Amino acid sequence: MTTTTATATTTASSRPKAAQLLGTYGSLVAIALVALVLLVWAPNSLSPFRLGNLGKYCSWAMAAVGIGLAWGRGGMLVMGQGVFFGLGGYTMAMHMKLEAAGPGGIPDFMTLYGDGTMPGWWAPFRSAPFTLFAIIALPAAVSFLLGYAILKRRVKGAYFAILTQALAVAFATLLIATIKQTGGFNGLNTFSTVFGHNLYDPGVKKGLYLVSAALLIVFLVIVWQFNRSRYGELLIATRDAEERVRFLGYDPANVKLVAFVAAAIMASIGGAIFAPIAGIISPSNVDAAASVMMIAGVALGGRSALLGPALGAIAVGFGQSTLSERFPTGWTYFQGGLFIVVIMFLPAGLASLWPKVKSLLPGRMSPQAALVDGENGA
Amino acid sequence: MTASLIGQDYIEIRGLTVDFDGFKAIDGVDLTLMQGRLHFLIGPNGAGKTTLVDALTGLVQGSGEARFRNKNLLGMRAHRIVQLGIGRTFQTATVFEQLTVLQNLDIAAGVHRKGSRLLFARRAVPERVAQTLETIGLQALANRPAGILAHGQKQWLEVGMLLVQDAQVMFLDETVAGMSADEREETGDLLERIVPDRTIVVIEHDMEFMRRYADFVTVMHAGKVLAEGTVAEIQADPQVHEVYLGTAAEVGADE
Amino acid sequence: MDALTTPFLTGTATGAILLMAALGLTLTFGQMGVINMANGEFLMAGAYAAYATQQLIGNAGLALVVAIPVSFLVAGLLGLLLEVSIIRWMYQRPLDTLLVTVGVALVLQQLAKDVFGAQGDPVVLPSWLNGNIPVFGYNWPFRQLFTIVLALAALGGLSAVLKYSTFGRRIRATVQYRDLAETLGIPTRSVDRITFFLGSGLAGVGGVAIALISGTNPTLGTTYIIPAFLVVVAGGVGQLKGTVIAAWVVGVVTAFLTDWTSGSMAQVLTFALVVVFLQVRPQGLFTVRTRSLA
């Protein structure tokens, strides 16, 4: 068995290796292309309004990149990412409200709806460093506690999805009900500055967009490294055969927990950059429907592809603003239809069409084609 | 397999019972699994062989005692049992079909790896993985997805995963079923090579394979141990004959 | 006494609605592993069917009597249509059915908005449902009692069908040993379809009860779907007994929490309680051993 295949080894391993290299660095090249478009082309070509919109799509795309990790690679259908998006968004918005109120001042809506006193837990958010810390620590703590509680009990599949969505419903309900503390249904808006920079200054607006786009690129690189690392392999193994992983000495709950927490942090940072760009964060940005919107982009682009979730989220965000402007009711039909058609007929998203497109290109062979080609040895 | 090679490791099972809503799939089994010998577990369908392994590896809940290195395996969580050095294969070979053969083996090696190292990509093929690839003869397919492997190759990959894990105790659940005669022989020879410093338990229906490689045989029937001994002793046991005569036709399948 | 009876009775009525919403979910989840997120919209369809019946018939009492079977049929046929057109292609991908039915739910909501308007419509109570019954000093609205009766009737009908009819035996056989049922010649495919029809129809009947209590609304499904799923999660999949207990407990507990805190806080706390409950019983109250979860 060992000797007969010795010659085949050298020839067979060289080709997939080349394909592997192409796969690895091809992904980086693709990320670089996206970076080029987002960081160089867009700021120089789009109007400030469109650029602001693109900045919002990028913030959704950050949440989507996390969903791609948790759902596409980890098999956890996270239907409540709006919660983490909201944790980051509200944290940032609280800081901005306090900035607008000035030192010692309290946010305007508290005088409007309440008795003019500020709840004590708002106070720390005056501090910019604390705000930045909370944007990461809050979602990390919440997702860790919730993830630990339900993943350790081997709650998975649909149960997991339903629980995460229930979380989003509960979160939005809570926000709406606490108008004196969180602005209720209206959310938090009318900010003036972010970390001392005037939000109405065109330069600051452009800067916010650049931060949003740059963070998205950073997340893409992080996920790229996640995917190629041993952890990435383990995550896929856990997704496909959780029980088998257990019998290799891993606790699958821990493997999934890492992806769940990472996805939560990504969504939170997305929310934190969304609030200053959009100038508002409200329950409708973070509820179950908003969470489902984030999933839509991921499904469209390709849940387990590297760029699929991000590009899908940008496309869905773009579709929403353009379509909902022109056909207000049409957009909901379109979104519903998108789910049905994409999940039914293209479960791996548009990304699954890529290899087919590539193989049609003349003159070069895609890694997939190389793999299929090598199959005659098996 | 000389007596001097038999080491200190063993699993001592006392009064193991597995109860499925009143049905006793395992009923008070006493069994000692010694290091250094190929221990075959045979018995007709429904005898409780797989359930016994399930209980010892944390897949189903059992009562009683199963001591390994001063720990009671019963009640421990599955991944902890693995971390103690106890590995198993499954009747239907379960490999990660979307991952390559190499990745499958590499994941199995993770039990000896620090968690923080997980965040890095694999730079080279680890020594033990490379050795195992050679042992199980799948080098040519190292970079192919495991899903394309033939049935026998998947079984080999599972054995390979145990080797990479360096499991001190191995439970092999019908590993040679569906293998060609040559593959069986290679599997048997491999097991003979690695058994001196390990405890290996093989669940098997192939009597030919059992006769050739077994150092010790336990026959189970209806959740209990029916007979124990060497191949010759088992073959001479009238009780074993009685149990097998009625079910000879079904010997190819399992519970 | 009032502080206890009011939430208890109101909560029992809520539990009755949750039960009608959850029965269909637990049936289809238990039997086919399908998570139907559009089930809330079947409630909504049932409510609008009741509304439309009333518009056509005029007499509120007669309309209600007619509305119950009509709503059952409308929602049931919608469910059947969903199974035949979409779900049946996706039995191998349970998590994906969840997402596809989210899409269906969005479409149905928008459809209701376009047909009936974004604002809800009131449903007129027949005079015989308009009164109150005094219970320990609390004037219990008669329609809440009616809701409970309706739910018990739906439950009784369903369990009778499951227990005594040939079809019911087929359902139970399919749930427990699908492969075996197939080899025994049970047409599991049509069993699946009828289960879908029945489960969706029950949601439609639940919609009638909702229409009587709070009128129609294009988005009323979204209000009930998550609590209904929490009932399924807590009750154990494919288990009528567990579903009934869980629906009642969730309804009553939510009502008490609402009474003590606020409606929104109660939702949050109920969610937290379900998560805590899952720590103790990860697979719900009662479990079917033979079927593994998605």
Detailed description of the structure:
- The complex is a heterotrimer of chains A (378), B (255) and C (294).
- Chain A is an all-alpha fold and 378 residues long.
- Chain A is built from 17 helices and 4 strands.
- Chain A has a two-stranded antiparallel ribbon with strand order 1-4. Chain A has a two-stranded antiparallel ribbon with strand order 2-3.
- In chain A, a hairpin with a 2-residue loop joins strand 2 and strand 3 (197-198).
- Chain B has 255 residues and is α/β, with parallel strands linked by helices.
- Chain B has a domain at 7-98 and 167-249: Rossmann fold (3-Layer(aba) Sandwich), CATH 3.40.50.
- A 6-stranded mixed beta sheet of chain B has the order 6-7-8-3-9-10, sandwiched between helices.
- In chain B, helix 3 (101-108) runs parallel beside helix 5 and helix 4 packs antiparallel against helix 5.
- The termini of chain C are far apart.
- Chain C has one domain (13-220).
- In chain C, helix 2 packs antiparallel against helix 3 (60-85) and helix 2 (39-57) packs across helix 9 (220-235).
- Classes of the chains: A mainly alpha (378), B alpha/beta (255), C mainly alpha (294).
- Chains in contact: A-B, A-C.
- The A-C interface holds A 75, 77, 146, 149-150, 153-159, 161-163, 165-167, 169-171, 173-174, 176-178, 288, 292, 295, 299, 329, 332-333, 335-340, 343-344, 347 and C 29, 35, 86, 89-90, 93-96, 98-100, 102-107, 109-110, 113-114, 222, 226, 229-230, 233, 262-265, 267-268, 271, 274-275, 278-279, 282, 293-294.
Topology:
The complex is a heterotrimer of chains A (about 375), B (about 260) and C (about 290).
Chain A: H1 6-45, H2 48-73, H3 81-101, H4 108-113, H5 128-152, H6 157-177, H7 179-182, E1 188-189, E2 193-194, E3 197-198, H8 202-228, H9 230-240, H10 242-246, H11 252-278, E4 280-281, H12 283-286, H13 288-301, H14 308-326, H15 330-345, H16 354-360, H17 367-373
Chain B: E1 10-20, E2 23-34, E3 38-42, H1 49-56, E4 63-68, E5 71-72, H2 78-83, E6 86-88, H3 101-108, H4 127-135, H5 151-165, E7 169-173, H6 181-194, E8 199-203, H7 207-213, E9 216-221, E10 224-229, H8 231-236, H9 238-247
Parallel strand pairs in B: 3-8, 3-9, 6-7, 7-8
Antiparallel strand pairs in B: 1-2, 1-4, 4-5, 9-10
Helix pairs in contact in B: 3-5, 4-5
Chain C: H1 2-32, H2 39-57, H3 60-85, H4 94-116, E1 132-135, E2 138-141, H5 142-164, H6 166-176, H7 178-183, H8 188-214, H9 220-235, H10 240-260, H11 263-280
Antiparallel strand pairs in C: 1-2
Helix pairs in contact in C: 1-5, 1-8, 1-9, 1-10, 2-3, 2-4, 2-8, 2-9, 3-8, 5-6, 5-8, 6-8, 9-10, 9-11, 10-11
